[in-house]
């Protein structure tokens, strides 16, 4: 799927950006974002999303009315329940999950650790974790740490970095000793979109538990965690969910596991009675037991605005815009960058592609650095990948065209 067609004349295959923007049913949302009125081209929405203008108002109101006005009373009035409230908002708008199965708090890394330990505890007596060799480093590092702690073996799925894991790849590594399958739904490098439903089913067929990292799919790709039978999932909120730098991650755990869910970071906020201050830890009922420490209240505010916007338009419309944006970026890459020796290193089939596109060339590290100097902000990923992250709610087709033309100009002069 990463094969490159022969070079075409510039603009031969690329439709008109103005016409695409005029026909875009989500185009009106762009003006809601800070900075959308500037000529800056932002191709890194899959690393850090733009903020909504309304978020500035929310933060001001919070400081003046809630924090400043209610002070410590805020905990009793709303803050204690906020991780569960926001978790349910994310679940309803983005995850395809019923209420009571998702909570917000901690970083993605910490929640990944907690969820993986909890997943392993669901399958005592099994000794293997299946994961992808080309997955995001944190996933691999956390898995290695848990394997050392519990005496487990890691079984690696080897993949083409320009593609990603298939159901067949995973099935080949499964056995009666598989405790957990840990995979990213969308590959951070290539944007390969894994078949979560089929892989989950294959893992369940051998009695294993599945933990999905949704960081590059939530808010970009429709999810149906309950329907797919997913056991656990984690994801960050500062990419397509617009939570801002360092905003807290979320964790999902299917209700059928709650009565035995055992996670290792047993803080007071996950206690059945936090204010009893008792000598021993007793887990809270339901998903609350995945909470450890004091909820990051301020860090949850911005993401609520983006989640509300997603709920307003629906994930079907978001996905349609995402597919159109990435398809347009590929067309421009073929027309403008392929003649310069670059190649698309993402799936060409939109059914197998998430919300970003990677274009490879040996000079891309230098190209990205020079683009940043021109206020064109893509991402770089080894080996030689210019990563174009397109946020469906805030990115215009004109922005895509301007950025790809700039990339071609810089690459031509490299």
Automatic annotation (TrEMBL):
Gene Ontology BP terms:
anthranilate metabolic process; L-kynurenine catabolic process; L-tryptophan catabolic process to kynurenine; NAD+ biosynthetic process
The cofactors named for this UniProt entry are: pyridoxal 5'-phosphate
Q: Which GO terms describe its molecular function?
A: kynureninase activity; pyridoxal phosphate binding
- Quote the catalytic activity from the record: 3-hydroxy-L-kynurenine + H2O = 3-hydroxyanthranilate + L-alanine + H(+); L-kynurenine + H2O = anthranilate + L-alanine + H(+)
Q: What is its EC number?
A: 3.7.1.3
Pathway it works in: Cofactor biosynthesis; NAD(+) biosynthesis; quinolinate from L-kynurenine: step 2/3; Amino-acid degradation; L-kynurenine degradation; L-alanine and anthranilate from L-kynurenine: step 1/1
- Give the record's keywords alphabetically: Hydrolase, Pyridine nucleotide biosynthesis, Pyridoxal phosphate
**Listed SUPFAM superfamilies:** PLP-dependent transferases
This entry carries the following GO cellular component terms, namely: cytoplasm
Identify the InterPro entries for this entry: Kynureninase (IPR010111), PyrdxlP-dep_Trfase (IPR015424), PyrdxlP-dep_Trfase_major (IPR015421), PyrdxlP-dep_Trfase_small (IPR015422)
Kindly give the Pfam families that the UniProt entry links to this protein.
KYNU_C
Functional description taken from the UniProt entry:
Catalyzes the cleavage of L-kynurenine (L-Kyn) and L-3-hydroxykynurenine (L-3OHKyn) into anthranilic acid (AA) and 3-hydroxyanthranilic acid (3-OHAA), respectively.
Q: Which family does it belong to?
A: Belongs to the kynureninase family.
**Its quaternary structure?**
Homodimer.
Protein's recorded name = Kynureninase
């Amino acid at each position: 799927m990463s094969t490159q067609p022969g070079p075409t004349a510039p603009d031969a295959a690329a439709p008109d950006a103005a016409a695409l923007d005029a026909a875009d049913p989500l185009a009106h949302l762009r003006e809601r974002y800070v900075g959308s009125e500037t000529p800056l081209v932002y191709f890194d929405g899959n690393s850090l999303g733009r903020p909504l203008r309304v978020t500035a108002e929310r933060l001001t109101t919070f400081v003046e009315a809630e924090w400043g006005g209610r002070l410590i009373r805020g905990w009793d009035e709303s803050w204690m329940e906020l991780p569960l409230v926001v978790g349910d908002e994310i679940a309803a708008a983005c995850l395809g999950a019923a209420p009571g199965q998702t909570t917000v708090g901690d970083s993605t890394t910490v929640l990944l650790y907690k969820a993986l330990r909890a997943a392993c505890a669901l399958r005592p007596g099994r000794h293997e974790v299946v994961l992808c060799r080309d997955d995001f480093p944190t996933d691999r590092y956390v898995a290695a740490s848990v394997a050392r702690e519990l005496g487990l073996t890691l079984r690696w799925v080897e993949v083409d970095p320009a593609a990603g894991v298939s159901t067949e790849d995973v099935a080949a590594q499964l056995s009666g000793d598989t405790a957990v399958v840990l995979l990213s739904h969308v590959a951070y490098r290539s944007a390969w979109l894994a078949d979560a439903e089929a892989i989950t089913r294959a893992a369940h067929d051998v009695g294993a538990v599945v933990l999905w990292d949704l960081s590059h799919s939530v808010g970009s790709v429709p999810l149906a965690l309950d329907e797919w039978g997913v056991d656990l999932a984690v994801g960050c909120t500062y990419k397509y969910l617009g939570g801002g730098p360092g905003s807290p991650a979320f964790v999902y755990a299917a209700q059928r596991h709650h009565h035995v869910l055992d996670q290792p970071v047993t803080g007071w906020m996950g206690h059945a009675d936090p204010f009893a201050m008792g000598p021993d830890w007793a887990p809270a009922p339901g998903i609350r037991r995945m909470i450890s420490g004091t909820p990051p209240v301020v860090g949850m505010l911005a993401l609520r605005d983006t989640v509300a916007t997603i709920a307003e338009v629906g994930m079907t419309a978001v996905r349609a815009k995402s597919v159109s944006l990435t398809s347009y970026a590929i067309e421009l890459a073929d027309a403008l960058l392929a003649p310069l020796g670059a190649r698309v290193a993402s799936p060409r089939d939109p059914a197998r592609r998430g919300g970003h596109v990677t274009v490879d060339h040996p000079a891309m590290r230098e190209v990205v650095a020079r683009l940043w100097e021109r206020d064109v902000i893509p991402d770089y990923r080894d080996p030689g990948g210019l990563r174009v992250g397109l946020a469906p709610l805030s990115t215009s087709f004109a922005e895509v065209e301007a950025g790809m033309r700039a990339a071609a100009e810089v690459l031509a002069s490299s």
